[in-house]
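Changelog-linked ticket: zinc ion example.
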Amino acid sequence: MRTLIANGTVVNAGGSARADVLIDGETIALVGAVPEVAVDRRIDAAGKYVIPGAIDVHTHMELPFGGTFAKDTFETGTRAAAFGGTTTIIDFAVQSRGGSLRDGLDAWHAKAQGNAVIDYGFHMIMSDVNDDSLREMDALVGEGVTDFKLFTAYPGVFLSDDGAIFRAMQRTAHNGGLILMHAENGPAIDVVAAQAFEAGQTDPYFHGVVRYPIFEGEATNRVISLAEAAGVAVYIVHLSARDALDAVRTARDRGVNAFAETCPQYLFLSLEDLGHGFEGAKFICSPPLRTTDHQTELWKGLVKDDLQLVSTDHCPFDFKGQKDLGRGDFRKVPNGLPGVEDRVDLMHDGGVVGGWISKERWVEVVSAAPARMFGLEGRKGTVAPGADADLVVYDPNRRHVISATTHHMNVDYSCYEGRHVQGGSDVVLSRGEVIVENGTWQGAAGRGRFLKRQPTGGAIR
Ligand code: URP
Ligand code: ZN
Ligand code: ZN
């Protein structure tokens, strides 16, 4: 099967040019002036961008959390991702307390295989660092599950103490993997949260108040220091606060291999959204939404590459039946927001149209940097011969309104309800196959493949 995408502007992280793209089978055969060839399908991209399919390296399909499960399955969540121009996700498999990494990983393979409609990889959440799980880390790296998320937050659930984190970091220094850190001081947060609750401050708004930015800054600084001592790179997930960005920036200025992502919710939403009574539960995630002054700093961080990429931390819970487990006690609201479908358009609208970043930097933060950071370089994240033909014909002028009534995520609300955005994915291809065309699903069920990734140790330029 040969497909020609003609007359578009190919946008890569490194530059843009008017060029045709010839696809042969699952990969890109040629980019540039394509000679007259017989093709099975021709897609006209005049006036459109042709970008590499976006990569979301932080999703939680079916995550058990807060007494319930994230609502999107690998089928519904990856389909929604594709509608939004994302053709690869990396989801977090979970080691249960007392369980093995192997059991956790097997469970995630079972959830995804035959259900995901785009390609996917896994990181591993470690909630029990011990001699056995440390040994298992090496095996997982060999199987292409190259990154391990640890937490300084959520005491009694996922939190690891500094010794455990340091041991995992030492191990990755040998196996070439990468440590991902959820950096907030969970024990200190729990003290303030209990005090707020005792004082009658039970609404979702107080979730945002008690998780001080300085708690994120302190933990970020701490885990970067631990990584420095262990001689490994560290990647901070879902960075939300200026205090944490300062810690990353300072470390990077010293030449430390510290990296970080932020998420659209921290760029576009704020503490105010947590107000309005229990409606604010729709916006409960951790770290929490911050005051608007933090947003400006995060945009600067993206401009200056102190933040390397943008992921979603997609972790959807219905407002009715899930978020309302926490009525009367903000501590019991399941933490997490939907967003896998909206990231590419929000970053185009707020970032490119909004004047913060170029269209090339937009491709860098949603696609190219994720590929480089997480062992998919050359295969994903680029429009180049030999790469998988994961491509999006993107209309930079199309306008639409984000709404739960039209989105494809399996969740009963949108954090961006009513927001007008400029830019949208017209045609989405995954390994040469058109899976979304003008708002209709064309892909086969369960067609996504597991991606065995190469360890990078965070070695990105
Ligand atoms: O609130 C969040 N972020 N939920 C998902 C779990 C995590 O910490 O990433
Ligand atoms: Zn987290
Ligand atoms: Zn997460």
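Closing comment: Example verified and attached. The longest strand covers residues 2-12. The pocket of N-(aminocarbonyl)-beta-alanine (ligand 1) is lined by residues 60, 182, 238, 285-286, 313, 315, 335-336 (CB under 6 Å).
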